[in-house]
Prior knowledge:
By secondary structure, the protein is α+β, with helices and mostly antiparallel strands. It contains 12 helices and 16 strands. It is globular and about 80 Å long. Residues about 5-10 have low confidence and may be disordered.
Amino acid sequence: MNTLSANSALEYPNEIGQCIMSDAQALAVHTETPGMLTRTYLTPAHHGAAAQLADWMCAAGMSVRRDAAGNVIGRYEGLKPGAPALLTGSHFDSVRNGGIFDGNLGVLLPIACIQRWNAEGKRFPFALEVIGFAEEEGVRFKATLLGSRAAAGTFDMAVLDNRDEDGHTMREVMAASGFHTVGLAKAAYAPESVLAFVEVHIEQGPMLLSEDLPVGIVTAISGASRFMVEIEGLAGHAGTVPMDMRRDAAMAAAEIGLHIERRCSGTPGLVGTVGQFNVPNGAANVVPGNAIFSIDIRAGEDAVRQRATADVLAEIEKIGQRRNVTIQTRKTHEAPSVPCAPWLQDQLAAAVERCGSPVRYLPSGAGHDAMAMAAIADVAMLFVRCGNGGISHHPLETMTVQDAETAANVFIDFVENFKK
Length: 420
C-alpha cells in the first residue's frame, strides 16, 4: 500500500484515491487465471490476497487476525482499549473473470483511511474494524455470504457438505487450509461489541453514472425470490403439427418470460429476470416438448416483491392450462429485503453534503455482506459510481481516481463525526 503523509489531503490532491486504485491493481495479481480476475474461496490465489490484505492492515497500524471462516480482520484500536467497534469492510473473493473493484473497494478504502489517521495520530472513542470477508459470491461451493454469515453468527453448517467442481467438500477444503469448522461459532461477533456496520461498494449499476453523481446512499438491499421452472409439453414434428394443436413447452416458457417483463416494468425498485433458458434435446425441426428456465424477482420492499411473485405464479398456472402443458415450479431461494438504518443514512448524507456532493438515495438490487451483518447490527452502505455504463462482474468494471477520493473523504467525514 502506498504511504500517505499526515497532510496528504492538502499536499497531494487525490492521493488517497490513487492509493486505492493502485492497491486494487496490486491485489488483482492474486488470481487463479492469469490475465483475468478469478479468486474463489480458499484457493492459493485467495490465500495470497488474504496475506496481502493482512500486510496492508498491519502497515496501516492495525492488529490483524483471521477467523475460523478465513475472514481477514484488522482492528484500529480506539482511545480506550477494548471499546466497541464500528465495523466496515466487504469481500475479497470474486466471480469468474470479474472486476477488480467489486468487494475489494470496501476493504481497500477503509485501510487507506486508517493509514492516514494512524499517520496523524488520530484515534476515536470507538474502535474501527475492517473485515475482508473471505467469501460472498458463492462461486466455489454454491453458497453465498459465507464470511459475513460466520461473522454474524448465522453460518449454515449444512453447506459444509457442498462440493466444488473437483468433488472436494467445503469441510475438507477448510480443514486443509487450517480452518476447522468446530471454531466457526467463535467467529461470530457479540452484538454488544458492535456499534454498526457500514459497507462501501461500487454501485454495480448505471444510476449514479447516468446522473453524474460520484456517490449514493443505499436505502435498502433488495430481497429476492428465485425459482426453477420445468415445463412438459408434447414434442412433435415442426412441419406436421398444426399451430392450434401444439403443446409447445418453449413457447409457454417464452410467454411466461414476457409476462415477467411486463409485470416488473414500471414499478420503481422492482425487477424480474429470466437468466437461464434451456430447451433440452431441442432441434430446429421439432416442436419443443420440454423447457427449463429460471426466474429471479427482486425489490427493495418485500411487499412489492411478494405481490409481483404471486402474480407471476398465478399467471404461470393460467398459461399452463391454456396451452395444455404441465408446469412444475420449484423455489430455490428466498431472501427478505434488508433496510439500511435511517440514523446511519442520515449521518452518511451529512458527510456527503459536507464533502460537497449532492445527496442521492437509491436501493441496491444486488446482495451484499451488509445483508448478513444486519443480523447483529444496524447497517448502511455507500455506493460509488461505476464507469463503462455501470458494468460489473466483468473485466471492464471500472471507476475513477476522483470518485475513489470522494468516497474516501465521505467515509473519513462519516467516521470522524460518527455518533451512536
